[in-house]
Amino acid sequence: MDKVTGKAVILSSLGPEFRLAQMFPGVPDEVRERHRFDWTTVTVPEMVDRLREACTVPLRNGATGEEFLGIPPHPQVSNPSVDFVLANRDLLGHRMQKTLGRLKLRAQSQFKKDEALELRALWKHFMLLEDHISAPFRQCMLDAEGRIGPNFGNLDMKSYCAGDLYERTANYLILKSMVAHWEKKYNDAIQLDTLPDNDGMNFYAELYTGDPKRYLPDPPIIFRLNEVSRIVVMAQKMCAAFVNETELFDDLPPEVKFVEKALSIQGGTALRQFMLEDFCPNENVDPASLREALGRLYQQMFNMQTDPYGDLTMTLWNLCESTRRGTDDGREPYEEYIANFSGRNYENNPGYFQTYTFDHDKNSLVRFLDSAKVIEKGTAGSAEDVAKQVKGEAFQLLGFDIGGGGSPNPNAPRDDTKEQKAYVVPEDRAVGRPHMLGWLDILGEDEEGGNLKEESFESDKWEEVKA
Fold this sequence. Notes:
It is a single chain. By secondary structure, the protein is mainly alpha-helical. It has 3 domains: 16-139 and 446-457, no CATH class; 143-348, no CATH class; 365-436, no CATH class. The protein contains 20 helices and 3 strands. It has helices at residues 16-23, 29-35, 44-55, 79-87, 93-109, 113-148, 158-161, 165-194, 202-207, 225-244, 246-249, 254-262, 268-283, 287-302, 306-324, 335-338, 365-371, 383-398, 416-420, 427-430, and strands at 57-61, 67-70, 455-457. The chain is globular. The N and C termini lie close together (12 Å). Residues 376-380, 400-408 and 448-467 have low confidence and may be disordered. Residues 401-420, 448-467 are annotated as: Disordered.
């Protein structure tokens, strides 16, 4: 669904080349020249200001008739804002999304409500633009899932993976995502299979390795090593069979072909050497253009769901980082805004905001962990002993009878005096942070969108994108 129109995505009826342009959208050269950042000098405040300017349109209050400039009411977007984001797709993306979120929280932590509201509106609007721009790509990928899924194990790739260029590109990305997804599951299964059973500390290693859905009574996933190994081998064979069919693979977009070739090269230096000396000359593509195309592909993949596309998406980001190193594209103005720490005091970073601890609910996971006993390495018993302790504390937390009761004990005495006592956060978790500052709640009901429904576009001044 396209979140702007609220309807299913309709791919162009003008021909496959137009559908490919929908899958990998761009802007005309004159629009790009007008909007594109100079990455060698641009700063984050400048990028935010220019994004805000591109997204600002004439509005009218439906109740009073008052005219003003602002962000379009959700879920509407303007053509100039779409053009601006497309011109800088590889330079905005998830880093700008994270930066806007942190700046909003910073303004809240400083109790600057109006500024926080403005940043929240821009932040949400930017995410809407990303969803809107990515909608055709997601539809192409969904169609490719429908072609490949029912044919898993069929190595006659031409029988179901042939088609127009945009279809074959989506087919390859599905196959490569499938390989990355199952290789991750395979590595998790190996790690779980090699953990000793007689070490209590491995109980926690098992908890955070792999997909937690395997702990459900009837797991809806495949996670055992013998099963995963068969699937990952077949996924690799299918992807290799696709790549080896020249009619299917050889005319794919350069950035897509680069992914396949680059992942077999070890080391960043060797990768950049291959890109500059072999791939770019052979494909007749400029290295800067290839780096930008990789960034755009990454952003399209970033807007897919994490499961099962997150593993390939992270691989694409690593390729972007490796190919940018040592070039002007390697400059990172976002770092001080989104990094959790830096060489200087983090409190001096422009994206810093003061966090604080909460009065968590009695039955919350945080309160449970606060009250759990510390298990020192070397003093723990078996994994069964550790599991028994955790289970017992969890039962006490939820009000169950100790010893196996299947439902809360309604006759358990309630100690109201304990609830009236001030909640003291353990020092090892508080790590010096203040308690209950309250700034996270200052936007109140405005967090739900305020009265945006009363606003409307001035359609005679700006063209509204509706389809």
